[in-house]
Structure to design on (353 residues):
């Protein structure tokens, strides 16, 4: 991380309240950079001890599928990095039921343990968030 | 209200930066505070002072610089996204600063409303 | 909450995703190319006109830019300016941008 990154510690004067952040991952990896740079946002949030949820929906579900081999396209395979989220206490990883069904995927297809939730359940959670960031 | 705005796209290619600009301007006109405008992904290109659009078109980079100056806005460009795209300190437009992605999260924590503009 | 849709439903399926998530009383603001969903006669107009549980808004400047007159927009839609956009965000937070 760059030296200019601000990593808070106990002495820092920040709003004491913990806010709820929901990251909504809607795009497939590699075709565009949003998935990769979106993951970087999630990782940095891990350093701030906030209440974080990551939702994979639409083509975002493809970010975490197993078996990605990017050697021939010459890009970095960042899917293993999703396993680092647990180390930051980011454990609320949800995939939208409607999106995986439409794409013929099932929970066993993913590189990390995820909970499948229906859109209406995620929608209720979404409405309770302080900050929603889509990528 | 304290707003934080995220801009994901560069000038001209997408309308995102224009929309964000008009939104921020309207928020300020209404007396709200815009505590930070954060530029990520190709949004970092909004800080490129070398942008030279046609004379009869809006100069998006200059518009942000001027708005920033007029209202003392914190216009922050993500360092990692900027490095990837060759946006360096020496070509940074007036009023912008380069900093870490943590500034976006901090702004999310400190603001009342978070609004994202992109493609 | 406030949902925003800025892409045309004929280009991208973000409107469909938005409608899976917008709940009773939520505000949905269409702006940029998203306003094309609101034209009377567009395929999307039927579903949107029937969405009585939602409060629909369109950004006037984006309608004007695209030559969509007030009479060509679904009557269920309230037209707002950028100030109105700000008000919607302030009054309905949080905001989810369906890009």
């Amino acid at each position: 991380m760059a030296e200019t990154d601000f990593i808070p510690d106990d002495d820092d004067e920040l709003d004491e309240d913990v806010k709820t952040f929901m990251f909504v991952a809607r795009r497939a990896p590699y075709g565009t950079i949003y998935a990769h740079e979106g993951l970087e946002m999630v990782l940095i949030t891990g350093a701030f001890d906030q209440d974080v949820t990551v939702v994979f929906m639409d083509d975002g579900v493809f970010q975490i599928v197993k078996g990605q081999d990017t050697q021939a396209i010459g890009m970095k395979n960042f899917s293993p990095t999703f396993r680092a989220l647990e180390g930051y206490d980011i454990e609320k990883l949800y995939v939208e039921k409607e999106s995986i069904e439409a794409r013929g995927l099932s929970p066993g297809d993913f590189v990390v343990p995820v909970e499948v939730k229906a859109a209406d359940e995620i929608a209720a959670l979404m409405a309770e968030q302080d900050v929603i960031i889509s990528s | 209200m304290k707003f934080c705005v995220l801009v994901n796209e560069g000038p001209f290619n997408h309308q995102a930066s224009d929309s964000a600009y008009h939104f921020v301007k309207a928020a300020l006109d209404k007396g709200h505070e815009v505590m930070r405008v954060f530029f990520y992904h190709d949004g970092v290109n909004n800080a490129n002072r070398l942008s030279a659009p046609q004379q009869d078109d809006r100069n998006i980079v200059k518009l942000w610089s001027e708005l920033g100056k007029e209202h003392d806005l914190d216009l922050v460009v993500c360092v990692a996204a900027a490095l990837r795209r060759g946006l360096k300190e020496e070509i940074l437009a007036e009023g912008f600063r380069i900093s870490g992605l943590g500034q976006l999260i901090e702004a999310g924590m400190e603001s009342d409303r978070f609004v994202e503009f992109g493609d | 909450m406030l949902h925003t849709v800025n892409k045309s439903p004929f280009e991208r399926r973000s409107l469909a995703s938005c409608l899976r998530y917008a709940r009773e009383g939520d505000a949905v603001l269409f702006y940029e190319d998203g306003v094309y969903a609101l034209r009377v006669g567009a395929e999307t107009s039927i579903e949107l006109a029937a969405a009585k549980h939602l409060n629909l808004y369109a950004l006037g400047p984006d309608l004007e830019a695209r030559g969509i007159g007030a009479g060509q927009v679904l009557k269920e839609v309230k037209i707002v300016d950028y100030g109105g956009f700000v008000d919607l965000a302030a009054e309905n937070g949080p905001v989810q941008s369906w890009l």
Chain B has one domain: 2-117.
